[in-house]
Amino acid sequence: MELTIHVQILGIVFITGVVMGAVANKTNFCTMGAVSDWVNMGDTGRIRAWLMAIAVATIGVVVLEASGKVSIGTGTFPPYRTPNLAWLRYLLGGLMFGIGMTLASGCGNKTLVRIGGGNLKSLVVLVIASACAYAMLWTNFYDTVFGKAVSATTVNLAAGGTTSQALGVLTGIGNTAFGLIMAVALLVFVFSSRDFRGSFDNILGGTVIGIAVILGWYITGGSMGAEWKEFADFADVKPLRVEAQSFTFMSPMGDLARYVMNPTNISLINFGIMALAGVIVGSFLYAVATKGFRVEWFASRGDFVNHAVGAVLMGIGGVLSMGCTIGQGITGVSTLALGSVLTLIAIVAGAAGMMKYQYWRMMQEA
Length: 366
Fold this sequence. Notes:
The protein has 366 residues and is mainly alpha-helical. It has one domain. It is built from 17 helices and 2 strands. It has a two-stranded antiparallel ribbon. It is globular.
């Protein structure tokens, strides 16, 4: 295979995904688990690791943009900074995803990590979530079910003269200043905990995931990205999703389902699919190296139903909200997009609410 810029970028994404998968497995970096620790035990260690990843990614994006190394703008995948603020889409999709990841025992990234570790339950979740994401992306399901409601509630910021939903633009502070202030505030909070400061795994997890997101923006939004777009424009068959982007996992699941149905069409292999594959492989390699690979299956019919329903909500909700706990919660927030912040809040609220409900049900049955 010719080592084109397209192949180079996909290779970098795969290798980065391998590192992400291995580190997430080692450090147990898990956003659903982070919310669970906080809600059920008052332990904020993994929540702080998540916030650290946001801070690291935000600093990286701010510095890259301020130095002219990267241009993100509104033309990204997904369109994080679009002036069309689809608030209902962000909130409803985020709530669905938060509930779904709780039922399915993990967000998109954790599902991939668990697959790499031998968890067949998560493989079932991946299949179902991918089918639902495919329906949202590549059929008229989204338009039929959500289209009118989303269109009717979308606020066109451009009508008021605002070209972006980035918080630095909306507040008038500027993205550089706003991003740095936000990131520093997050880091101060994160490291205010003595327990967190003493946790190598939490610091490692937050740092590596944040850097991975920065790398994604750097290779697709900078000079390599410009060369990539030029290559795609002149390609006989244009590769899929050649846009500035970074790590996200739900829409790529829909793209994966599309590719599986037409495996000879290698133009369908994109950034997201290579990221999915990389995380699974990285987690697998770490699990084998540490003798932590364990095959796990559903404990009961009820366990299967919970995971299946969760997978449906993740697949639909993740595409509806235009991202998951990584795609919106870290990658999107690193662009300072208001919609990403709304999605993040909705995901946490959905997950926390479902956990409280599950605890109530358990008490009722005791």
